[in-house]
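[audit] Reproducing an earlier prediction to check determinism. Same input, same settings, fresh worker. If the tokens differ from the archived copy the diff job will pick it up downstream; this log only records the rerun itself.
[audit] input (398 residues):
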Amino acid sequence: MTSSEPQLPSFPIPKDWEEVSRLYPIQNDSIWLNFCGISPVSSFAASVMADYFDEYSRFGIFAPRYSEPKFRGILQDYLAGLLNCSPKSIGLIHNTSEGINLYSHSIRLSPGTRILVLENEYPSNVYPWEHWKEKEVDITFVATGDTPDQFIENLEAEIGKGDVSLLSLSPVHWCTGMPLDLIAISKICESAGVRLVLDGSQAFGHIPIDLSQVKVEFAAFAAWKWLLGPLGVAAIYISPEASKDFRLIFKGAGSVKNDSQYLPYRDELKPAADQFEHSTANFNDWIYFYASLQMLSTIGFAKVQNRIYEISDLISVKLRNLGFILDNDSFPGSKSGIIGVKGHESGQFTPDAINSFFRSKKIYTAVRMGRLRIAPHIPVTERHADILEKTFKEYLNK
């Protein structure tokens, strides 16, 4: 963008993490600790949305600074920069289930082979594969294990049985927070001729992932978790190799090249990633997503990830000192922002009761798979960690 072009709102670099926290009004009198679930909106994103709505109210679809093709390119560039891939490999969709379903129905697998899925996987990465059972392709769940190394051993054993055509997994477990060694997994899959598919919703923006270093055929990921974006927007990555032999099952008005020219009808399709956007997108939320990605990019994706680990480690230390048992005690060498609290040294542990008590104090966590799940992000500060520790003590002393 040249200096003569109309300027979009810019994100001012904050002086510290407390200033970042103040961008999230929800953190003023409460503590949001479910960023791996749904992230709240920042005042910066709200201000960009207001700027867009003001301009759109005056110019409609001819709003000079907010054109759809420009923002598609901006979002693709941000996400490609995060994942170290080509922007042409990124497409914009609505949610992870949509992306994996479209991919799953658009590929060919041989009867008699198997799809491997992570044990206790989130449903978005299970249900889209079930139609393959009718085509004589089985689904096998791979035991997660308690450590990343145990999962690798379980994966190698399962692939060693043969007849595996595809592995689809989340690089970070949505309940325990355990991250998996994608480089090792990628090498195993490549050696065995197994396609690797990722549900990246709990990973992208949370842990470092370099798609130039791991051979991933396809990934889908939500905007509203670690990328701090809006509900109802997600993205996909499809590798250049996969896109050469990819046949999307749906063809819409937005699937063909030069789609703004409606007649005559034509068959020349857009690149594979863009084919996932069949028609008119939810452009309003693209603006919200743009604001969130601009904020994360300006701060620095790597700096954001390190801060997530820093505040998560601080909370983990406080919980251990209070006698709580954490999932990440089993994998101390792996960084994760998700804290799975799975017990207490007293033997007394009722996560639903703790979660309800926290809600009464306006502290928002979640209960997943018998754990109290805590997932901080950059709006969570040391001040919030101290309040959380105090509230845990209050609960234990009831």
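[audit] rerun output stored. Observation attached for the diff report: The chain has a mean pLDDT of 95.
[audit] end
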